[in-house]
Amino acid sequence: MWISAKYEKDGFGLQTITAIKEDGSIWYIPENFANIDYQNIMTLVAEGKLTIAPAEAQ
Amino acid sequence: MSTIKASNIQNGSSSSVNIELNTDGSATFAQIPVGPSSFLRNKIINGAMEIDQRNNGSSVTPTADSSYTLDGWAIRNFSGSGRFSVQRQTSITPANFSYAVGLTVTTADSSNSSTYSFEQRIEGYNLAGLGFGFTNSNYITISFWVRSSITGTYCLAIRDRNATYSYISEYSINVANEWENKKITIPTLAAGEWNVANFIGMFVDFALGSNSARETTAGAWQTGNFIGTSNQVEWIANSGATFYLTGVQIEAGFVQTPFERRLYPQELAICQRYCVVYGGDDLYERIALGQAIGSGTAQLLIFLPQEMRAVPSFTTSGNFILLNAGGSGQAVTGFSIDRASRKILQFVATCASGLVAGYATQVTANNSLASRFIVSAEL
């Protein structure tokens, strides 16, 4: 479902995720456990099927 | 206090029974007494398939499993290769319904190696009162209008939030390309996880094809994650096959009442707890307002029309511009989500340059009715 993901960090240290689905759509996702996109990404990470790239240095 | 014992109650001028007194203690009304206001008894959202914020009646053929289509309704392919289009349509509907969803097989899969369905996930909060998770036995009744070009046995699956328990009901589509009204009653279940606040409470799946790994016996609660039975029609194996659905209702008890008609704004507001779509009304539709925080960066806010189920994600399609106070529009080159809550979405948009920090800034569609900004807190 998700083919790539990358952490983003703002100037105050808030971390979020930008991820791409298999249909090519780009999603901007909060680190919030109730968010289904975040849940699904972390499930894939736990299963070793997806790695979240680190945020670029600010 | 005395008891009147009778089997039926009938008006002296009526030619048929008004109320039938059943031996199990229940009563069946010839005409269900529906009051002038809604009883909010339907646990399904957008059961009449009228809300289609994402596509507004256009046909889509999703590839990703769990892709949402009409509001509240997702396709499931469990990574199978078969594909079917989904379209809200107005030309093929049963009496008294203005809309139905039409599914058409675009890429057939006759391998029997995957499972396909059209699914709604009901939020835990909304299952209150049905009786799931409690030991006192109860029933729910699922009713819907269905029509398909392929006749035979189809399955409806109810699963708990962890898909640990499944109940499969079989129903028949008897005549090709004719609307049929179906009613299914199933007992509630004490076991399983159902009433979990704002998380998934229940999966409701209309099976369109299943493989043996997800098949079980119909008519009883089963431990495991199942969608159908071995009798399920392999609808997905037939290129061009159609399946239409509308008037979906899930309610407490074992009586099918008339489909609950919520007003359009009510239904839209319910749907917007899970998804809000901006764009399509104006070529330069205003999406969000904020301020530039650098020459190529702006921080923007959307005040969401409903408190969403969870802190939302968002995605976009088409092109947008950043419109700085007093300046010309700058093409947006990227987005990221920022401080967001269930009520307010804050995000960052970037452009090459041209903004003035501190100036009020908007994100607008870029001369297109096709630009979409989709905020999602789906289950």
List the helices and strands and how they pair.
The complex is a heterodimer of chains A (58) and B (379).
Chain A: E1 2-9, E2 15-21, E3 26-30, H1 36-46, E4 52-53
Parallel strand pairs in A: 1-4
Antiparallel strand pairs in A: 1-2, 2-3
Chain B: E1 8-9, E2 19-21, E3 27-29, E4 74-76, E5 83-89, E6 100-107, E7 116-123, E8 139-148, E9 152-160, E10 165-173, E11 180-187, E12 200-209, E13 221-223, E14 242-252, H1 264-271, E15 275-278, E16 286-294, E17 297-303, E18 313-317, E19 320-324, E20 329-331, E21 334-340, E22 344-350, E23 360-365, E24 372-376
Antiparallel strand pairs in B: 1-2, 2-3, 4-7, 5-6, 6-14, 7-12, 8-11, 8-14, 9-10, 9-12, 10-13, 15-24, 16-17, 16-23, 17-22, 18-24, 19-20, 19-23, 21-22
Please describe what this structure looks like.
The complex is a heterodimer of chains A (58) and B (379). With 58 residues, chain A is an alpha+beta fold. Chain A is built from one helix and four strands; from the N terminus they run βββαβ. Chain A has a four-stranded mixed beta sheet with strand order 3-2-1-4, covered by helices on one side. The relative contact order of chain A is 0.28. Chain B is an all-beta fold. Chain B has one helix and 24 strands. The radius of gyration of chain B is 24 Å and the shape is elongated. The model of chain B has no long low-confidence stretch (mean pLDDT 94). The interface between A and B is medium-sized, with 21 and 29 residues.
Summarize the model shown.
Chain A has one helix spanning 36-46, and strands at residues 2-9, 15-21, 26-30, 52-53.
What's the N-to-C terminus distance of chain A?
29 Å
The greatest inter-chain interface is formed by: A-B, 21 and 29 residues
Mean pLDDT of chain A: 92
Strand content of chain B: 35-45%
Structural class of chain B: mainly beta
- Low-pLDDT regions of chain B: none
Helix content of chain A: 10-25%
What proportion of the residues of chain B is helical, as a percent range?
under 10%
Following the backbone from N to C, one meets helices and strands of chain B in this order, namely EEEEEEEEEEEEEEHEEEEEEEEEE
Query: Helix count of chain A, per DSSP?
Result: 1
Overall shape of chain B: elongated
**Total beta strands of chain B:** 24
Instruction: Give the assembly state of these chains.
Output: heterodimer
Q: Main β-sheet of chain A: number of strands, strand sense, barrel status?
A: 4 strands, mixed
Shape of chain A: globular
